[in-house]
Design brief:
This protein starts with a helix and ends with a helix. It is mostly helical. It contains 7 helices and no strands. The chain is globular, with a radius of gyration of 20 Å. It has a single domain, classed as Phosphate transport system protein phou homolog 2, domain 2 (Methane Monooxygenase Hydroxylase, Chain G, domain 1, Up-down Bundle).
Amino acid sequence: MNVFFVAERREGASRWRPLLRWLRPRGAHLFELLDRHAGLCGEALRAMVRLLGDLSDPDRRVREIEALEKRADAVVDEFGAALRPAWMPPFPAPLLLALVNDLDDIIDLVEDAAQSVHLYNLTRATPEAIRLAELAVASGDKLQQALRCLAQPEATRSAAALCREVDEAEAQADHVMRAAMAKLFRDEQDARELVKLKAVYELLEGLTDRCKDAAHRIESLVLKYGG
């Protein structure tokens, strides 16, 4: 890329930053909705850990997660309704919509994973499955913290640092996944259990991938529009 073009882009972005710092507090309701959605993601991820820790009554946990997902959908609708008439949102509207959809992808996948555990009639959860879910919980918590920092012009560097921690959790999940799959194909004698656990592992590992996608979205906002 032409260095003069890059410099021009950076200079142009820097001209807008004072205005964006002024606009950010005016988007308080939008940030509150993002925080609410992230909180629902966190609740659903914790419910997933509880489900894997006790498979004696999966239907109850699945219904809990489904209810959280429906509440998250309502937040997405409210977010869109609040964003449409906004004259000057704190960040470009298409990027904010992409961010709330990234968050919604997380809770949608939690629901898919929980329903799969139930439908597959999984009777045991391995330590590796639980660890993948725990890493997703940690990622979700960091995402919510990053979103709160994104709402504060003076805390954008903290948002970027938290996003990097989400990246690190995703890398840890990749390592757990590789070890889990190697152990599964080495030790599991029941072909049906192997297929079920493999599918559940893939869904659980995907949760940290979805969190990483949202973190990258936040980081790109920080790099382009941060103070």
